[in-house]
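Figure S7 source data.
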Amino acid sequence: MTSVTELEVNGERRKIDADPQTSLLTVLRDQLGLTGTKFGCGEAECGACTVLLNGQPQRSCIMPVSLAAGKQITTIESFEKDGHLHPLQQAFLDEQALQCGYCTSGMIVTASALLRHHPDPTDEEIIRYMEGNICRCGTHHRIIAAIHRASRLIAS
Ligand code: FES
Ligand code: FES
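Tokens for the predicted FE2/S2 (inorganic) cluster complex:
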């Protein structure tokens, strides 16, 4: 059974037609064409599907879309503005903090929330905050460096 729901995604109101139990990730990717958010494990274990809900990182793979209605949903597609990469995107490129890139949007989305709470985080704060985001390519050291670099970019 489907029902029409209105979502607020990246500042725009979007109507969708889906079973209320459908995952937010499926709706974002398959109905709204926002494929920057990735399907990894589907079990809330890897962080590839992370989006912000009212500014807080959430696993969209296990979130029924009905629970996202009425909240501000932010996906990686909103990070670049007017042709300018977000400092985190730029820093991930500069530090070469990715290989396959599959984890990257979830990493950047999660790190954006970290930097909002901790503008100049220590290594330990980064590791603790990011521990739910897994990189199978083993770029974690570069990801830490990229988050430090983004912190400096934002402050400058
Ligand atoms: S796909 Fe959602 S946490 Fe892995
Ligand atoms: S860059 Fe491949 S999973 Fe992280």
